Amino acid sequence: MTAPAPHEGPPEGVGASLVAHDLHVRAGRALAVRGVNAEFRRAAFTAIIGPNGAGKSTLLRALMGLDAPSDGEVTLAGRPLARWGRRERAARLSYLAQGEALPPGARVRDVVALGRGAGHWRWGLLPPPGEAAADRDAVRDAMQRTDVLPFAERRVEELSGGERQRVSLARALAAEPHFLLLDEPTNHLDLGYAAELLNYLRCEAAGGVGVIAVLHDLTLASQADALLLLHEGRVLAHGAPQDVLTPAHLLTAYNLRAEVLRHSGRLIVVPDLNGRPHTT
Ligand SMILES: Nc1ncnc2c1ncn2[C@@H]1O[C@H](COP(=O)(O)OP(=O)(O)OP(=O)(O)O)[C@@H](O)[C@H]1O
Asked: Which mean pLDDT values do the consecutive 10-residue runs of the chain (280 residues) have?
């Protein structure tokens, strides 16, 4: 993956944020997100971390407007998400689902082009003929940055899990969103692509995009500008990585004893393999 070119000048509405206000969201019968208050700004990369079942995906889906809150609300640039038109919203927020399914039989190039549809093209439908040059450029740029151009003409069934993941990412990037919401985007990626992806997301954020990514690898996540640690649907900590990734927080959230080491200004989480005090 190649880093994006820096955007020229500050992007429009760079101060606009995506905000969760006392957000409660149900998943099935359970309350999966419980009173989350958090502000996500453009030009910042936030990683949402936490143990399995902490509510990370549910929070991300609610921030995207896919799951309606049972209480509280999400605002984008000060306006409740529910009051944005579907098209307006889709032009600003782009989402990569966990284990996203790709339309069967589709060619990679056409899947990536779906990202330009602002929510109007359905899976399986190809972009309309004569699409604008800006769309073509954005699609090509997204494919180049995710290194999927070499297999642009192949069908998605012919790709490996990691290659499909990069196609999904290209689809999300092609929208050129204000906020990029990614659920476990490093799934299926080898260490090289995972590191490139993290570097890429940092560059996107530096260029003005608000990046919000659910990540499980805490050492990779520590490369974000900020971490939001969820535990049982609530925010246990939100702030700079060194303030969130502490042994005390890791013990509470993951029920795990771990050391947090610093190496060349980076944080490395080393779990104690016998470090789950409440289980055997
Ligand atoms: N469709 C559903 N029906 C019922 N319960 C659900 C549903 N989806 C999620 N849940 C429950 O809601 C809680 C939060 O789930 P969520 O997927 O948001 O967690 P997560 O932090 O993303 O987990 P993971 O790291 O395992 O992906 C979990 O207890 C889960 O079992």
From this structure: 46 74 95 97 97 97 95 95 88 89 90 73 47 79 91 93 89 92 90 86 91 95 96 98 96 94 90 72
| Ligand 1 centre distance from Cα of residue 267 (Å) | 28
Nearest CA to ligand 1 atom 8: 27
* Of residues 113, 109, 101, the one with CA closest to residue 154: 109
User: Whose C-alpha lies nearest to ligand 1, atom 25?
Assistant: 52
pTM score > 0.80 for this model?
A: yes
- Site residues for ligand 1, CB cut-off 6 Å: 27-28, 30, 32, 50, 52-58
CB 112 within 8 A of CB 164: no
Burial class (CB in 10 A: 0-12, 13-18, 19+), 88: middle
State both tokens at 210: 């608000």
Q: Whose CA is nearest to atom 17 of ligand 1?
A: 57
CA distance 238 to 48: 9
